[in-house]
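Issue 218. Parser rejects a valid record. Input:
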Amino acid sequence: MDAIILAGGSAVRLGGANKALLQVGGERFIDRILRTLAPLFHSFTIVSSDPRPYRDLGVRVIADEQQGLGPLMGLYSGLKASRGEASFVTAVDTPLVSAKLVERLLQTEDSCDAMVPKWNGNPEPLCAVYARRCLPHVERVLERRRIVSFFPLVRVCYLEESAVAEVDPLGRSFLNVNSPADYEALRSVVQDDQDAGRA
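Output the parser choked on:
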């Protein structure tokens, strides 16, 4: 199974900064995600409009097939390029993804087209497993841009919040950085963990 990391987005609210290169706990976001996921996957694909920042990572980097269509296009491009029948998909702005949660998601049933965790009553589609057979359904709704747009067309299995809480009690896998305030909050969380010896 492949791991796909979506590294697109213009990060307007962060002054156009490349989120992958932001640091937390002394590591770049992209490095932390790769380190966390390395024991679980042999193959990684980064989907980005600019491959240059990732050349030293030793992983495959591809571009969106079409620019400006958001994470749904990133998912489509990543799945299309994947080598396996299913892939775990995450975003570069969620660097606290939990290996234990990913392991739990990988236990998906073969009959599921997508295995998606829920948190705070909502699906978390950018920390999920997708079967390659989702591709034609994703293609049908690309213009809608939102990943959940194709969910009614496939069989989605949900990892309920109670099960997520067993492996990621505080839902840190879903802490994403869209603004300077988000970034400061994330750094504070990691600093607290380091102070407590949990990082």
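Fixed in the parser; the record now loads. The chain has a mean pLDDT of 90.
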